[in-house]
Amino acid sequence: MKIGLFIPCYVDVVYPQVGVAAYKILKHLGLDVDYPLNQTCCGQPMANAGFENQATPLAEKFEENFKSFDYVVAPSVSCTAFIKLNYPRLLKGRHQCTTSDKIMDIVEFLHDVVKIDQRLGTFPHKVSLHNSCHGVRELGLSSPSEENVPKFNKIKDLLELVDGIQVFEPERPDECCGFGGMFAIEETAISAQMGRDKVERHIQTGAEYVTGPDCSCLMHMAGVAKKEGLNIEFKHVVEILAAGL
């Protein structure tokens, strides 16, 4: 299978090490992965702000860049969910849409398609697991607490393949951290308080690190922790999976 690696703009600019780790682990597993150099934003920020007319040309460009791949893999649940759920509507009547069926978050791809059963790297630390809202409720990476379904967590399954790690989940494991893209800008006080509450619950697990599948959530909580002088660090899940490989 031929895999196209999509690195969202905020990962590329602010957290490039996450993109490198995603590529590293896919190559380590012997997969045929390519990174199209002319890729750009998926259009989520524009659409979330109400400017879908500006998002649509970016969706068309994304489709052209990635239509030849069997899978499109991204280390970002929010961008993945936006493409999967919104591209068919944005491109309807304008452009054939194939990527909405091919796009997968890297956790989902490694867990459900590759089905990793080998030991990965080493990360001898206590880690608190953050379940981002898009991952829980739009991509099915873990079981939503509001639904009466058997509990599962694909992120935790992958982390347990890493030697030396201890994985914990906070109280209210899938409660929002308060970022929510435009929400953090339009409702600053509420967003900040939700972030403080969430970081405190992660700290109460005794963890040294918080990890999750989306840099935007981690960025929000890291900002709260830095401002409040809280002693906890943040790493994207692929950074931990690739550690020591």
UniProtKB/TrEMBL annotation:
Pfam family, one: CCG
UniProt domain Cysteine-rich: residue ranges: 4-84, 127-221
Superkingdom of source: Bacteria
One GO MF term attached to the UniProt entry: oxidoreductase activity
GO cellular component: cytosol
Name of the protein this chain belongs to: L-lactate dehydrogenase complex protein LldE
Natural source organism: Xylanibacter ruminicola
